[in-house]
């Protein structure tokens, strides 16, 4: 349903061109649950922004349900059913959480449904519905409100960039349940960018992105054991040779 065909993203740095996403091709299937992981700076958020149309491709093509959306802007892509929850959500002064959920839903959204979306991300609806989406919200609260707006939308494909970032353990458990529910009940394609083992375990497919290229892609059974091995190896190597656990 979403096809990335040989896409690249290059930037100019000190007069030289730097390739952030390097000739990448991935095909996401309808209803699939994908988790993209990999080292910091590997290009994960950039990839999400290219899919959403926030950044422009340097080369390549993006097809959505067979239609070429390469030249479509963010609004057009959003209207087609692509949604993106930012790694660091923006704040909008003068707007309440309820307003934001209603705008996301694009139509009348009964209060009890607004409350359900907030409960799904572990926020007490009574406390938050009339709060302003400004600097008074903590980072974790803001992040969860952003995720609730994605739940409120009628999407075909939902992209979450590090939904776990800044979120406490209790809310994180709730969020995991919500992702599972979303996957089972709606036929959304879900793409989550994450470093969390518990989110990796939810995936049908895991993609490891490094230096703007796919390092590994496969089912969680194929990919997860090797990721965990590598991570353990790196930590031990940093701590000293005698601790290396082979
Ligand atoms: N517009 C830009 N101009 C210059 N460099 C950029 C631009 N966008 C991204 N980069 C660089 O590209 C690399 C990939 O960034 P990106 O945010 O996609 O990484 P990431 O995989 O999401 O990392 P993290 O795990 O830390 O969130 C980084 O080195 C970043 O500094
Ligand atoms: Mg990122």
UniProtKB/TrEMBL annotation:
Cited Pfam families: ABC_tran (PF00005)
Record domain ABC transporter: where: 2-236
Molecular-function GO terms, alphabetical: ATP binding; ATP hydrolysis activity
Entry keyword rRNA processing: no
Keywords (A to Z) from UniProt: ATP-binding, Nucleotide-binding
Signal peptide coordinates: none
Keyword match Nucleotide-binding: yes
Transmembrane segment boundaries: none
InterPro entries from the UniProt entry: AAA+_ATPase, ABC_transporter-like_ATP-bd, ABC_transporter-like_CS, Molybdenum_import_ModC, P-loop_NTPase
The protein's name: ATP-binding cassette domain-containing protein
Phylogenetic classification of the source organism: Bacteria, Bacillati, Bacillota, Clostridia, Peptostreptococcales
